[in-house]
Design brief:
Chain lengths: 249, 356
């Protein structure tokens, strides 16, 4: 018998708590596959955020931390400075990384911390009940923007990848999506590069993954993926924002 | 080893290194800046890491990261900066990580002043951040004691897997005294920390965490923390009693205030007044049995603080309201003078220990 599909070693057997159709699960799997493929499972320390993925420490089969809301990049800095030879990654939502934790992510990138950040942008606060995120699109409704985000009142959505790509300390910044199998394959490649860049000590690396939240968007899982493609990608264009020369080639 | 003349803040830095600390994360603030200045130079010399964080919030979360990864790690700040650290301190206490936090207090509230203060006592000993947690709080009153307590702070942090705070003040940080340092501890020779997250090689993953979604589990976790605090109260209280054996009036103060009190006791004794001083060295756990013994035959107690009255509440509580406890405090960076304290003593003795 040939095994065609098995759980990566870097995932535990625990059943995740994510809603049906939520793409957090796919992103977990990509990260775990990359850790397996690079053979660094026993050298890796991950940091879960506060958000829907708060329990990621139960899902990744590596040493894990649970950080305070937004502080994962600072926690990662502390770990990496103690163990420069270990692989350290943060897994963060858009509220976590682009609102309450803006200072921590910007300065981790500015210092060129040799860590990998997986930034899951679903344009909403999933965990706390669909409130507006710093990434919520203009016109998109949220429980705290019931008439849709109005730039006169709530300002404009933040493009974190573009901001971080301006930092000399950032070695690799890419935005990917997981709304169809082709994009999932590209996303995995980017995640792998982001870990390799860390292993080669090139600097800070981040992959922003556009992700769906069918529950708080009020859509079916399939409609949510369509909404992501039609609405998020035009504002958050996919592609590599910054990469070391040899990676670009 | 020979004594060297050193500023308090710098001595604390060297003492941390002697205690095996190789990691420091902090953000500049007066009046503790000489400590990071010293470590910025000294830590890289011995293969350590000094990192200036973007804020106190980030600094304490770096400490969370480094402590969870098994290192002896320290941060330091002064009042407004310590307020910002409270989030991280609560997580560190919840996740049961060892670390040392220095607060060289200044006057408050708000931006307050850059002059010495003691008005963060409640924040330090009652919790400060959210949740039922306690820091082990050590209050030195001389530079030598700062050095000695630093070694103890790291040892107790590891023993209890709990954050330890050294609660000083601007005066102690700035003044100079001769000090003797202990031998250097090699951090690689310290007992290993099997719970630390440093890569799950050949074992199940370790998780550094303070989240317990199951209420029963969180209650159990809290009971475990409380048991730890009770053990601290059993085993770790420290204090100094000065001329308390026959004292009719006992002064109580910690840190810089205790130095003033000691001088006041000496002067009062010269005037024939049976005065003494009780100085708590651990503010949490509070040395309850010791203060009761020191005030056994006191007709009155006088608490002296550089605040509007915080320690005094614990003094009353721990004396179980059996002795009248009076208060004398200055605030805003004003330091009580020996003369003012002596005249307060004289006044109280003349009144014959009236009720507080
Ligand atoms: C200091 C603090 N503030 C607020 C919260 C409440 N909170 C929990 S998750 C969350 C938003 C998370 O949103 P995001 O980072 O986008 O993650 P998602 O759930 O969408 O994956 C908030 C505000 C908290 N736990 N801590
Ligand atoms: S609320 Fe949204 S982000 Fe959270 S698990 Fe459900 S679908 Fe996923
Ligand atoms: Mg989100």
């Amino acid at each position: 018998m040939i095994t065609v599909f098995e759980r990566p070693k870097s995932l535990t057997p625990a059943k995740t708590h994510y809603c049906p159709g939520c793409t957090h699960g796919i992103i977990h799997r990509l990260v775990a596959e990359v850790i397996d493929e690079l053979g660094v499972r026993e050298e890796t320390i991950g940091i879960a955020p506060v958000g829907c993925s708060v329990l990621a420490y139960n899902y990744f089969n590596v040493d894990m931390y649970e950080a305070a809301h937004g502080r994962a990049p600072a926690v990662a800095t502390g770990i990496k400075r103690v163990h420069p030879d270990k692989v350290v990654f943060t897994y963060q939502g858009d509220g976590d990384l682009a609102a309450i934790g803006t200072a921590e992510i910007i300065h981790a990138a500015a210092r060129g911390e040799k860590i990998t950040t997986i930034f899951v942008n679903n344009a909403i606060y999933g965990m706390t009940g669909g409130q507006m995120a710093p990434t919520t699109l203009i016109g998109q409704t949220a429980t705290t923007a019931p008439n849709g985000r109005d730039p006169e009142v709530q300002g404009y959505p933040i493009r974190m990848s573009e901001i971080l790509a301006t930092m000399p300390g950032a070695a690799y910044i890419a935005r990917v999506s997981v709304h169809n199998p082709q994009e999932v394959a590209k996303a995995k490649k980017a995640v792998k590069t982001a870990f390799q860049v860390q292993l080669e000590r090139k600097g800070f690396a981040m992959v922003e993954v556009l992700s769906s939240c069918p529950t708080n968007w009020g859509l079916t899982p399939l409609k949510a993926l369509e909404w992501l493609k039609d609405n998020m990608i035009p504002y958050y264009p996919l592609g590599v924002q910054k990469a070391p020369e040899e990676v670009k080639a | 080893m020979a004594k060297v003349l050193m500023k308090g803040n710098e001595a604390l830095g060297e003492a941390a290194i002697r205690a095996g600390c190789r990691f420091f994360f902090g953000y500049p603030i007066t009046p503790q800046s000489e400590l990071p200045h010293y470590l910025a130079k000294r830590l890289p010399e011995i293969g350590g890491v000094f990192l200036q964080a973007e804020s106190e919030v980030a600094a304490i979360n770096m400490v969370y990261g480094a402590a969870g990864a098994g290192a002896r790690v320290m941060t330091s700040s002064s009042s407004p900066g310590v307020s910002l650290k409270m989030e991280g301190i609560s997580y560190i206490a919840g996740a049961e990580l060892p670390c040392v936090i220095v607060n060289m207090q200044r006057g408050g509230p708000g931006l307050g002043s850059i002059q010495p203060g003691q008005s963060d006592y409640f924040q330090a000993v009652k919790g400060g951040g959210h949740g039922d947690y306690r820091l082990l709080v050590l209050a030195p009153a001389s530079i030598q004691e700062m050095v000695d307590l630093m070694g103890l702070a790291f040892a107790l942090a590891d023993k209890y897997r709990n954050p330890v705070m050294i609660l000083g003040d601007g005066t102690l940080g700035q003044m100079m005294e001769p000090v003797e340092f202990p031998e250097m501890i090699d951090p690689d020779k310290l007992p290993s920390k099997p719970w630390a997250a440093r890569g799950a090689k050949g074992r199940e993953p370790n998780i550094i965490n303070s989240l317990y979604l199951n209420p029963l589990e969180l209650e159990e976790h809290n009971l475990k923390l409380q048991a730890k605090y009770a053990q601290m109260a059993e085993e770790e209280t420290r204090s100094e009693s000065y001329y308390t054996d026959d004292a009719e009036i006992v002064l109580v103060g910690y840190g810089s205030s205790a130095r003033v009190c000691k001088a006041a006791v000496d002067q009062a004794r010269q005037q024939g007044i049976k005065a003494g001083l009780f100085r708590p060295i651990t503010l949490f756990p509070f040395p309850k049995a010791e203060i009761q013994a020191a005030c056994r035959q006191a007709k009155s107690v006088l608490t002296v603080e550089m605040s509007m009255g915080q320690l005094v509440e614990d003094v009353r509580y721990n004396l179980e309201f059996k002795v009248p406890v009076h208060f004398y405090g200055r605030a805003g960076g004003m330091v009580p003078t020996t003369r003012a304290v002596v005249s307060k003593i004289t006044e109280l003795v003349q009144e014959g220990g009236r009720s507080a």
